[in-house]
Amino acid sequence: MASPPLAHDPNRIPAPLQRAREHSRAPSVRSVGSTVDRDGRVIEEVGSPGESVPLELLQSIYLSPNSPSPDTGSFPSSSGMTWTGTAHQRTESFSSDRYSPHNVPDWPSAVSFTSRTTFPPVKKLPKAQKRRVLVTGGAGFVGSHLVDRLMFLGHDVVVLDNFFSGSKSTLSHWVGHPNFELVRGDVVEPLLIEVDQIYHLACPASPKAYQINAVKTLKTSFMGTLNMLGLAKRTKARFLLSSTSEVYGSPTVHPQPESYWGNVNPNGPRSCYDEGKRVAEALTYGYARQDGVDVRVARIFNCFGPRMSADDGRLVSNFVVAALKGEPLQVYGDGEATRSLMFVHDLISGLIALMESDYSEGPVNIGSPDEGSVLSWASTILALVKDLRASGSIPPLPAGQKESEIEFVPAVVDDPPRRKPDITLAKEVLAWEPRWTVMAGLEETIRYFAGQLAEGE
């Protein structure tokens, strides 16, 4: 005789979901202690005066243990700023907790989700100060951090993204907020919208992503920029182009100032991105000279931080994920090529400072002078992961699994031998320079990826 079915207990949580919740409350991915800047001062806010956001508020979005409870909607408090708090709430709908997996009998244990009934607190701006901002590529690594900052500052934000390399999960905490709108679309198609500012970030930025479809990358750089400049012209919006240090190619000048014209292979495997960004800059200044469009161009150097894709092929994400998994850290060539690493919060501060500045005469380098060889960065990341494991800050490797080692693999074609920005201009016209140390940024990034990998398991 078959056993009678167990009575459904609405308070019972399936074991896999319970384990996931217990892990999310653990300190394994939470920042321990205070983060200090290059001058030894505790970082409590990021951004320039008047445009700053509490660091703890930003961390509550991307470091899962600090995330608000869907039941209580609690977020870190922020002093000295006027916020709307939890005034914006969703009404109960099909996403409410009564439809959560642990409340539905026989729901597959492998499926779990949480709902958000409140939103992060945003600054309350007077109508005259509130801007309508378009961010193309806003679901990507850099774009999502920019959206967070703009939302916290109280602006209306519209994101246009085709999710080729971006992810809806990076923006899920804003979906439904009255200040936020997400549009699935492609910049190669015209967009009819009214905006005050345009941050044009749309384009795959990692070699692995932009080489998948070289023609599409070129179309995005040219047609996408053409369409967004046309929109800026029609609406009289200020336009900021997210360019790249790749326009310098394999530089013969070191460090690279904005006046350097570059040394780029026009038909190599990386040319779809390098030359695409060069023509995007040419288009931008063509519209400025011919049609009077108010433009800004940021040449972004190597950037890292939470929300990087674990498999995007970039230096920091490659090394961090491999070290966390106990896999070899693959160094291309002899490892003597150099890179200068900048934490994402510094980049966002630089982009906003450039957009709000009066400087429009030419491109501005946004990067860090912290230069090191690829081999030295691999050794640093490996040592930091080991230290965080030893302190119990991140989960240990499975029993019997050895720590990662560094291995050398053949060099890739057209990989720049040296890369370091001259940021004199940014200091002069923006009063901007990196504030985060590389070590502080790496620690935050390692904790983020540790949490992502644990949740994936």
From TrEMBL:
It comes from Rhodotorula toruloides (Yeast). Keywords: Decarboxylase, Glycoprotein, Golgi apparatus, Lyase, Membrane, NAD, Signal-anchor, Transmembrane, Transmembrane helix. Its EC number is 4.1.1.35. Coiled coil: none annotated. It is a single-pass type II membrane protein. This is UDP-glucuronic acid decarboxylase 1. The keyword Transmembrane helix applies. Pathway: Nucleotide-sugar biosynthesis; UDP-alpha-D-xylose biosynthesis; UDP-alpha-D-xylose from UDP-alpha-D-glucuronate: step 1/1. GO terms for biological process: D-xylose metabolic process; UDP-D-xylose biosynthetic process. Pfam families: GDP_Man_Dehyd. SUPFAM superfamilies: NAD(P)-binding Rossmann-fold domains (SSF51735). The keyword Membrane applies. It catalyses: UDP-alpha-D-glucuronate + H(+) = UDP-alpha-D-xylose + CO2. PANTHER family: UDP-GLUCURONIC ACID DECARBOXYLASE 1 (PTHR43078:SF6), UDP-GLUCURONIC ACID DECARBOXYLASE-RELATED (PTHR43078). Belongs to the NAD(P)-dependent epimerase/dehydratase family. UDP-glucuronic acid decarboxylase subfamily. Residues 134-445 form the NAD(P)-binding domain. Residues 1-50, 62-100 are annotated as: Disordered. It is found in: Golgi apparatus, Golgi stack membrane. CDD domains: UGD_SDR_e. Its cofactor is NAD(+). GO terms for cellular component: Golgi cisterna membrane.
